[in-house]
Fold this sequence. Notes:
Layout: E1 3-8, H1 12-27, E2 31-32, E3 41-46, H2 51-68, E4 72-77, H3 78-88, E5 95-96, H4 105-109, E6 128-135, H5 146-150, E7 154-155, H6 158-170, E8 175-180, H7 196-204, E9 211-217, H8 224-231, E10 236-242, H9 249-255, H10 261-274, E11 279-286, H11 293-306, E12 310-315, H12 333-356, E13 362-372, E14 375-379, E15 385-389, E16 397-406, E17 411-415, E18 422-423
Parallel strand pairs: 1-2, 1-3, 3-4, 4-5, 6-8, 8-9, 9-10, 10-11, 11-12, 15-17
Antiparallel strand pairs: 6-7, 13-14, 13-16, 14-15, 16-17, 16-18
Helix pairs in contact: 7-8, 11-12
Amino acid sequence: MKKFKVITLGCRTNQYESQAYINQLLKEGFEEVIGDDEADICIVNTCTVTESADKRSLYQIRKAIRDHKPDKLIVTGCLVESAGKKISEISGVNHVVSNPKKEQLLPIVYPEKHWAEFKIETFEAHTRAFVKIQDGCNSYCSYCVIPFVRGRSRSKSTSDIIKEVEGLVQNGYKEIVLTGINIGDFDGNQTPPVRLAELIKRVDEVPGVERIRVSSIDPDEIDEPLIDAIVNGKKTAPSMHIVLQSGSNLTLKRMRRKYTSQDFLDAISRLKKACPKFTFTTDIIVGFPGETEIEFQDTLDIMNEIYFAKVHMFPYSDRPKTRASRMPNKVSDELILKRKQKLLRLAEKNAFKLRNQFVGSTFDVLIESEIEPGVYMGLSENFLPVYINNNKLRTNTVVTTKCVKNSSKGFIGEYQNKRSASTVFA
């Protein structure tokens, strides 16, 4: 039996696509290797969102050659679009497959085989399943290379998405995360378009779905139909990842973002008003060209106003072909590091303050892992970490839990035997 290894870097969309490769290979009779064992075929799905992502991707390519010694090493993903020639010259790389041909990767490499459809039916090592509903981006923000490497925005059909969700539910998954590169552009690949709010309502009707989360979205794309679909849905989770990037309108303008800081605050306010337990995560770029101390403080001010459950912080780095790479007044690496550390300390402090507001509350917690014998970690419906000491629990179940104490890592929870533990998958 031939063996394979899939290595993934970067975003949830890449994670989805890698899982689709895994499903295809398993259906064709390949066996997935564990750890650094040798493999007949190895796929490296790369990322190029930052300079460090480039370095990690190139490192993983060389590591895969060294550790797995594959007969065929295939490289795909966003780095291929900007450094395909460099990758193809690495000794041991057999195929370089561009993003537009990503879904045909295995038929390109093995045209003699009859490959299953490019979709996911399971999501290994996860208690939730990501479903890609859209790819590409039309925005061309000044710092971002994604439109150059992922192409124009395009959407899956609603019927294909619903079929995929139904298949995941049949395989035991209860939590579905709708993801893509810019899901606010979702149109269902049809005219007239099916918007994201309507898609969420349709997924909400799929029997067996227990939670629906919406992946990263811009604040200007949060309209009343979307708020209604999320707040009033039967299974929609009261948490969203809404992109900030900067709290300064001057910085946002240089970034060519489509919203202001007030637009961001208004979107947060409308969701919190509709559902007080709503929580938020976000992305922030530190050290964008020309970022002054006042502009950086504008970002910290918004963090002190919102209390994010989690902040994904990205130190600015030049990306080829982007406008920002040609901008003057670059912030020094030393100052970027200083601001990064300050921002992360504040993010951790404010996440603790956010959780303090919910001490004493009872949530349905999806158990994700057993971190030590009898101690489990899970996430509440509003995406807050909960730790439970109870040897009767199992991973991949949903249990009612009272959050009795806050800690630096998350809540200390007490299992409430008010509902039978709902198994997510066996």
